[in-house]
Automatic annotation (TrEMBL):
Highest taxon, organism lineage: Bacteria
Binding residues for Mg(2+) 1: D217, E221
Gene: ilvC
Protein name: Ketol-acid reductoisomerase (NADP(+))
A Pfam family per the record: KARI_N
Enzyme Commission number(s) of this protein: 1.1.1.86
Amino acid sequence: MANYFNTLPLREKLNQLGVCDFMENSEFLDGVNALKGKKLVIVGCGAQGLNQGLNLRDSGLDVAYALRAAAIEGKRDSWKNATENNFKVGTYEELIPTADVVINLTPDKQHTSVVNAVMPLMKEGATLSYSHGFNIVEEGMQIRKDLTVIMVAPKCPGSEVRAEFVRGFGVPTLIAVHPENDPQGKGLAQAKAYCVGTGGHKAGVLKSSFVAEVKSDLMGEQTILCGLLQTGAILSFDKMVEKGIDKGYASKLVQYGIEVVTEALKHGGITAMMDRLSNQAKIKAFEISEELKTIMRPLFQKHQDDIMSGEFSRVMMEDWANGDKNLLAWRAATGETAFEKTPAGDVKISEQEYFDNALLLVAFVRAGVELAFETMVDAGIKAESAYYESLHETPLIANTIARKKLFEMNRVISDTAEYGCYLFDHACKPLLADFMTRVDASLIGKNYNEGKDGGVDNRALISVNEVIRTHPVEIVGAKLRKAMTAMKSIKTA
Ligand SMILES: NC(=O)C1=CN([C@@H]2O[C@H](COP(=O)(O)OP(=O)(O)OC[C@H]3O[C@@H](n4cnc5c(N)ncnc54)[C@H](OP(=O)(O)O)[C@@H]3O)[C@@H](O)[C@H]2O)C=CC1
Ligand SMILES: CC[C@](O)(C(C)=O)C(=O)O
Ligand SMILES: [Mg+2]
Ligand SMILES: [Mg+2]
C-alpha cells in the first residue's frame, strides 16, 4: 500500500488539504434520522469506542460492539467496558454481517489488520467509518468499492467526548467522506447524523477531508496539545524544585495549573488567558512567550514538514513493525519523571494564584498555541481547522493532565498522539535548555507581582494587547466561539 496523499498530484493535494467548510446549525435539522433504525457496530471499546457509543445510544441509536475473539474470551477491558454498560457484544462473525455502519475505533496501528478482517464480512453497500484518517491517507488502505467510507473525528480525547456530552455540550468535530468511496452519495448525511449522535454539532462541525484531518490532527497532537504540554509540565516542575519550592506545591501548581489557565482560553482565547494576569505580569509573559516562539518555531516547522512528506508516518510505522520498541521505552521514561512521581501536595491554591505564580505555563501555552496555528496555516491547513487543533483542544487535553498527570494524558490519547508527543518532547527539552537557565521562581512557583509596584509603560501595554488581540487565531476563534453558545464551564481544583 502506498501513502495515498503522496500519490496525489499537487493540485489535488492542495485541494484536499483546503477542504474546510464550517457547517451551520441549519444543516443538522435532520438530527440522527439518517442513522435511525440502522445497526451501528463499533469495533473496539476503548477511549473513543466506549464514549462515542454511550453518546450515540443516548441519542437513540442502535449500538453494539464487535470485539476480537481474544478480548471476549479473556474478558478484557474492552469487553468489560461494553458489557458493564449493557451493550450487546459479539465477535466479528456474529455482528459485522448485519451492520449497516461499521465504526472502526481500534488503535490506528491496528487498522490495516482490522479492516482486512472485517471488510470481507461487511454486507453489500454498508458504511465503514473512522475517527481519524491515518489508515486511508498515510497507509493508502483500499476499501471495497461498494462500501461508503466516512470519517467523524472528534477533536478531543474520548473521555471528554463523553464529559462534554453529559454537560449538555459537545466537542468540535471534523466530518468527511472519502472521495474514492461514496457510491450511493449517502456518506455526508450519515456523517452528519453520527455527529449529531455524539453531540459534536453543538460545538461546531467542519466539513473536511480525510487528508486535511490527518495532516492537522497529527500536527496538533505532536506539538501544542500533548508534546508541548508534556515538555512545559516537566521543565516547570524541575525548575521549581531546583529553586527550592516545596515539591507538593510544585506538583499541584503544574498538574492543575495547566487546566486552570487553559480554561480561560476555552472561553476567550489567548486574550482572556493573558488578561487574567496583572499588566506587569502580562508584559513579562508576552516577552517570554515571544522568546519561546523564536526558539521553538524551527521544531514546529520540522514536525509539520515531516507530517506533510509522510516521513513522520514512515518512521512511526517502523516502530510499529519493531514491536513499539521506542514507544514503550519512551512511555516508561515518562513514568519515571520527578513530576510524575511527586503527588500533588495538600495545599490550597486559589484560582488566581494559578495565573500569578505560573507565568511560565501561560507563556508556554500562548507560544505553543500560536506557533501550532501559524505553522498549520502556513502549510495550507485552513484557519478553522487549525484553531480546533490548537487553541480549542488544549483545555480538553489539560483536563486529562489534571486527572492523573502525564500518565492519564498519554493513556487516553491515541497511539499516534502518544508517539508524536514523546518525539516532540525529546527534541524540545534540549532546545529550551539555555532558556530555562534564565527562568527564576518569579516566573514559576512564586507570585510574579510580589515586591513590584505594578507600574507599566502604557505604550508597551497597548502594543502587547494589540499583538495578542489581532493574532489570526483570535480572529477565527472569536467567530467559532460564537457558535458555541451552549459551552459549559468546568469546576476548577
Ligand atoms: N484517543 C482519542 O482520544 C482519540 C482517538 N481518535 C481515533 O480513534 C480511534 C481509536 O483510538 P482510541 O480510542 O485511542 O483506541 P484505544 O487505544 O483506546 O483502543 C481501542 C480498542 O481497540 C481494541 N483493539 C486493540 N487492538 C486491536 C486489534 N488488533 N483488533 C481489534 N481490536 C483491537 C482494544 O480492545 P482489546 O485489546 O480488548 O481487543 C481497545 O478497546 C483511532 O483511529 C484514533 O486515532 C480520534 C480522536 C481522539
Ligand atoms: C490528543 C490528540 C488526538 O488527536 C485527539 C484526542 O484529538 C488523539 O489522537 O488522541
Ligand atoms: Mg485529534
Ligand atoms: Mg489524533
